[in-house]
């Protein structure tokens, strides 16, 4: 797997569509235990990413991710804006100047993004946040890469792990964000941020390897 | 939904245009951003204070921009934190060279967006620090939640930190005073009816005709519990029990009281609540130095109120009495 800037912009473009298609699902997850605007905010944010990258020449992966991060920070709002914005900025920082990235780079990017999310949100695993999807995904990607699996297998494992992480949030008591005020009443609902995270990762896989293999 | 609006997507922009039209002697709007700044900002040599958050809580925070309180208010969409960009613009516009102190209510989105703006401003060489207000005792303050929410007690932080900044104090001293207010103030609210976010078009929660929610937040967040409506005296006592339980107040201590209407509750009812709050404080031999009754931090058209109690010392009394001249809060 080698992704160049042009392909990355295509992937980000597709993410905007997929978020739009899943806007209602994300908003409903959020409405159950949060304030019900996650889908709307994320859709606005990724459309801004598309707009911002429209004229990018695709020559520097780091710059593309930084532009995406800034567009998310400026347009998503709420808590998801700073979190996803920081994630993309941090991912971009580790591939600065690169024309292409491979699966080892993807692991570094995900690691750096997760660190950024934890730093910005002061969140840890089991807080019922996107960290729970991201952490599982990173661990799976790391194990698969270490075991010498193919990039396709490794990214597939990361996507599956992200969805497992998302499922796990259902049984957790929220400790961050507005959902935390519900304490035990937050049990039984999946976290909207973990859902959008898993969805983004799945879209990356689908764009690289086609939907039928997922 | 019955509201005086033109377009749900433009309520904040149009409100700001109307506010600037009403108070041109106090405030101006930053071109291209939903930020209200003091007309004469930046005040050279003075530490600037910036607050803000989601809109829908008017007069918070734009109404508190002026002498003796805020230098700028950043106005997000209704009940939604502003993004870092307008916060950064506000910081730049009001920085008079002595630094900028941000006053942030404790909500996850607000804290993250203000922190990001602070990080970027610091990279640009501006000295920025911040305080987080968390006065709402309805929410348990534990490591297992996002912490207590910031509600009407925030207005005391604006007033007192703002007065301190006017004295020419440095950013560290002002922050220390703001933190003292935060550690000395407790609030709790209750709601009789929900509110409608214009873009959503429907109430954000429902309450039966005979029902109310004790401890409800200013965005309709859940409180401690729901119960049947009772007399004003009983409800005031319920809020005061929870507030006093959480404060170390002793006979002879002095306090400031704020009875805050959430927008649809008449002043008549706020004064009835205030009457009982005063009785309770007197029974506890606590001296009431000053009382504020009115709408300071609202929640769109929600019916309800909050009570805030601020424990005072000599410094806080002096600063509370200092001149403030803003559209919504004046001390002469």
TrEMBL record, chain A:
Parts of the chain that traverse the membrane: none
Instruction: Write down the chemical reaction(s) this protein catalyses.
Output: dihydroxyacetone + phosphoenolpyruvate = dihydroxyacetone phosphate + pyruvate
Keyword Repeat carried by entry: no
Q: Which domain of life is it from?
A: Bacteria
| Pathway noted in the entry | Polyol metabolism; glycerol degradation
What PROSITE patterns does this protein map onto?
DHAL
Keywords of this entry: Glycerol metabolism, Kinase, Transferase
Share an example GO biological-process annotation for this protein.
glycerol catabolic process
Q: Does the keyword Transferase apply?
A: yes
Q: Please state every residue range assigned to the domain named DhaL.
A: 6-206
Give a Gene Ontology cellular component term annotated to this protein: cytosol
Its EC number is: 2.7.1.121
**Pfam families in alphabetical order:** Dak2
InterPro entries the UniProt entry points to = DhaK_L_YcgS, DhaL_dom, DhaL_dom_sf, Dihydroxyacetone_Kinase
Q: Which SUPFAM superfamilies match?
A: DhaL-like
Please give the Gene Ontology molecular function terms for this protein. Answer: glycerone kinase activity; phosphoenolpyruvate-glycerone phosphotransferase activity
The UniProt subunit note reads as follows:
Homodimer. The dihydroxyacetone kinase complex is composed of a homodimer of DhaM, a homodimer of DhaK and the subunit DhaL.
NCBIfam families from the UniProt entry? dha_L_ycgS (TIGR02365)
PANTHER family attached to this UniProt entry: TRIOKINASE/FMN CYCLASE, TRIOKINASE_FMN CYCLASE
Q: What does this protein do?
A: ADP-binding subunit of the dihydroxyacetone kinase, which is responsible for the phosphoenolpyruvate (PEP)-dependent phosphorylation of dihydroxyacetone. DhaL-ADP is converted to DhaL-ATP via a phosphoryl group transfer from DhaM and transmits it to dihydroxyacetone binds to DhaK.
What is the name listed in the Swiss-Prot or TrEMBL entry for this protein? phosphoenolpyruvate--glycerone phosphotransferase
| Native species | Anaerobium acetethylicum
UniProtKB/TrEMBL annotation, chain B:
Q: Which terms are listed as keywords in the entry?
A: Glycerol metabolism, Kinase, Transferase
Which top EC class applies here?
A: transferase
Gene Ontology terms: biological process: glycerol catabolic process
Q: Which reaction does it catalyse?
A: dihydroxyacetone + phosphoenolpyruvate = dihydroxyacetone phosphate + pyruvate
UniProt GO MF annotations:
glycerone kinase activity; phosphoenolpyruvate-glycerone phosphotransferase activity
Domain DhaK span(s) in chain numbering: 7-329
Pathway, per UniProt?
A: Polyol metabolism; glycerol degradation
Q: What is its EC number?
A: 2.7.1.121
| Any GO CC annotation of this UniProt entry | cytosol
Q: Which InterPro entries did the record assign?
A: DhaK_1 (IPR012736), DhaK_dom (IPR004006), Dihydroxyacetone_Kinase (IPR050861)
Pfam families listed in its UniProt record: Dak1
Q: How does it assemble?
A: Homodimer. The dihydroxyacetone kinase complex is composed of a homodimer of DhaM, a homodimer of DhaK and the subunit DhaL.
> What's this protein's name?
phosphoenolpyruvate--glycerone phosphotransferase
Q: Which organism is it from?
A: Anaerobium acetethylicum
The upper taxonomy is: Bacteria, Bacillati, Bacillota, Clostridia, Lachnospirales
């Amino acid at each position: 797997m080698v992704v160049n800037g042009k392909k990355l912009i295509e992937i980000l473009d597709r993410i905007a569509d997929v978020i739009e298609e899943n806007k209602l699902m994300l908003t409903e997850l959020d409405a159950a235990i949060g304030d019900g605007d996650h889908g709307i905010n994320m859709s606005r944010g990724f459309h801004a990413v598309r707009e911002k990258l429209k004229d990018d020449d695709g020559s520097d992966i780091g710059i593309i991710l930084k532009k995406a991060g800034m567009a998310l920070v400026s347009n998503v709002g709420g808590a998801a804006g700073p979190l996803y914005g920081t994630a993309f900025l941090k991912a971009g920082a580790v591939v600065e100047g690169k024309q292409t990235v491979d699966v080892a780079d993807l692991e570094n990017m995900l690691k750096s993004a997760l660190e950024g999310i934890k730093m910005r949100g002061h969140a840890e695993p089991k807080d019922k946040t996107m960290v729970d999807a991201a952490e599982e995904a990173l661990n799976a990607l790391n194990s698969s890469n270490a075991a010498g699996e193919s990039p396709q297998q490794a990214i597939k494992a990361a996507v599956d792990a992200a969805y497992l992480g998302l499922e796990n949030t259902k049984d957790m008591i929220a400790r961050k964000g507005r959902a935390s005020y519900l304490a035990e009443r937050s049990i039984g609902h999946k976290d909207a941020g973990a859902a959008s995270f898993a969805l983004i990762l799945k879209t990356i896989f689908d764009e690289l390897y086609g939907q039928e293999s997922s | 939904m019955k509201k005086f609006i033109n377009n749900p997507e433009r309520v904040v922009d149009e409100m700001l245009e109307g506010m600037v039209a009403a108070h041109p002697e106090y405030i101006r709007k930053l071109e291209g951003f939903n930020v209200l700044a003091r007309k004469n900002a930046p005040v050279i040599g003075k530490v600037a204070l910036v607050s803000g958050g989601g809109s829908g809580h008017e007069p918070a925070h734009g109404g508190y921009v002026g002498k003796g309180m805020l230098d700028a208010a950043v106005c997000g969409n209704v009940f939604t934190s502003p993004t870092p960009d307008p916060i950064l613009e506000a910081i730049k516009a009001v920085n008079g060279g002595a630094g900028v102190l941000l006053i942030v209510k404790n909500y996850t989105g607000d804290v993250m967006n203000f922190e990001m703006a602070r990080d970027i401003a610091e990279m640009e060489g501006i000295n920025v620090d911040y305080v987080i207000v968390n006065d709402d005792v309805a929410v348990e303050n534990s490591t297992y939640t996002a912490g207590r929410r910031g509600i009407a007690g925030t207005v005391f932080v604006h007033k007192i930190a703002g007065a301190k900044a006017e004295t020419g104090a440095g950013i560290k001293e002002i922050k220390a005073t703001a933190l003292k207010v935060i550690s000395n103030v407790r609030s709790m609210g209750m709601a009789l009816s929900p509110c409608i976010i214009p873009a959503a078009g429907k109430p954000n929660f429902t309450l039966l005709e005979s029902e109310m929610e004790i401890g409800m937040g200013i965005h309709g967040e859940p409180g401690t519990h729901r119960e049947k409506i009772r007399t004003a005296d009983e409800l005031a006592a319920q809020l005061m029990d929870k507030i006093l339980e959480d404060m170390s107040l002793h006979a002879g201590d002095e306090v400031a009281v704020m009875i805050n209407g959430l927008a649809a509750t008449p002043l008549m009812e706020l004064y009835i609540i205030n009457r009982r709050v005063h009785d309770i404080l007197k029974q506890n031999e606590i001296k009431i130095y000053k009382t504020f009754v009115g709408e300071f931090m609202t929640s769109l058209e929600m019916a309800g109120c909050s009570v805030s109690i601020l424990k005072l010392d000599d410094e806080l009394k002096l600063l509370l009495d200092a001149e403030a001249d803003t559209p919504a809060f004046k001390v002469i």
